[in-house]
Amino acid sequence: MKLTFLTAAAFCAATAVFAHEYKVKDITVDHPMIFETAKSAKVAGGYLRLTNTGPTADTLIAVSADFAPRIELHLSETDDLGVARMTKQEGGIAIPAGESVTLQPGGLHVMFMGLDGEPLVAGDKIDATLVFEDAGALDVTFNVEARDADDHKAMDHGEMGHDHDS
Predict the structure, then answer these.
(1) N or C: the chain end with fewer CB closer than 10 Å?
(2) 56-91 b/e with 16+ CB inside 10 Å = b?
(3) Could you list the pLDDT tens digit for every one of the 166 residues in the chain?
(4) Positive or negative: CA dihedral 142, 148, 151, 154
(5) Is this prediction's pTM over 0.90?
(6) β-strands 136-145, 93-95 pairing
C-alpha cells in the first residue's frame, strides 16, 4: 500500500513538472514549450495548446518576450510537391468558442526570430506574454525541452521558405 501511494505521488509530481497551464478569462494555455536550439540558430518555434471555454471566439494576436527581437505567429504547410513553407498569420490565431487550437511543429506556431546565437538549452525557462483580442494579456513561461533526434515533426525553421514581408 505504501509503495502504491509513493508511486502515485511520484507520478503526480512528474506530471506537474511537464504539464503547466495558465488562464486568463475563458482562455487556458497548456504547456508552452520551445525545443532546444543550436548555437547558430537565429529562430525558434514556440508550441502550446489554447482552449477557449467561453461562449465567443477569441484570437491570439501577439506574443512578446525579451529574448527575441521579433516574434510572429506562423503556419507551416507542406504542398503536394513536399515543399514546406511558412506564412505569417496577419490576423492572429483564432480560437473558436468551446474549442482548442494546438500550436505544434508542422502547423501553427509562435516564431521567435532574430536570436543572437545563444543556444536555448533544455531546462531553460523563457518568460513571454501572450496577447488575446478579448481576454487580454497573459504572462506565461515557455519550457525549453530536448529535441528528439528522431522526431520528424521537429522542423528546422531555417530551411523553410518564409512568405512574409516583415
Answers:
(1) N
(2) eebbbebbebebbeebbbbbbeeeeeeeeebeebee
(3) 444 444 444 444 444 445 699 999 999 999 999 999 999 999 999 999 999 999 999 999 999 999 999 999 999 999 999 999 999 999 999 999 999 999 999 999 999 999 988 899 999 999 999 999 999 999 999 999 998 855 544 444 444 444 444 4
(4) positive
(5) no
(6) unpaired
